[in-house]
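[audit] Reproducing an earlier prediction to check determinism. Same input, same settings, fresh worker. If the tokens differ from the archived copy the diff job will pick it up downstream; this log only records the rerun itself.
[audit] input (78 residues):
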Amino acid sequence: MDTVSLSAHFDGERIVLDEPFNLEPNTRLIITILPKQDAERESWLSLSGSRLEAAYGEDEEDYPVDLIKQANPEYAGS
């Protein structure tokens, strides 16, 4: 069997997979305990994500090439 990462949680008594997955008896496992996500960190991630979307959104203005003062010869964009 190939190495697979599965999402799971501890329900207070046992470790439960978040989605069904067939495991054979005596399958070897590695369990990684993840830190709790605190509300403040989640808020900062959400805020920074929304600000990045606003800064680089679909309605972002395109700047003409003649505004570039020094061309990058390694740039392969169109």
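[audit] rerun output stored. Observation attached for the diff report: The mean pLDDT is 86.
[audit] end
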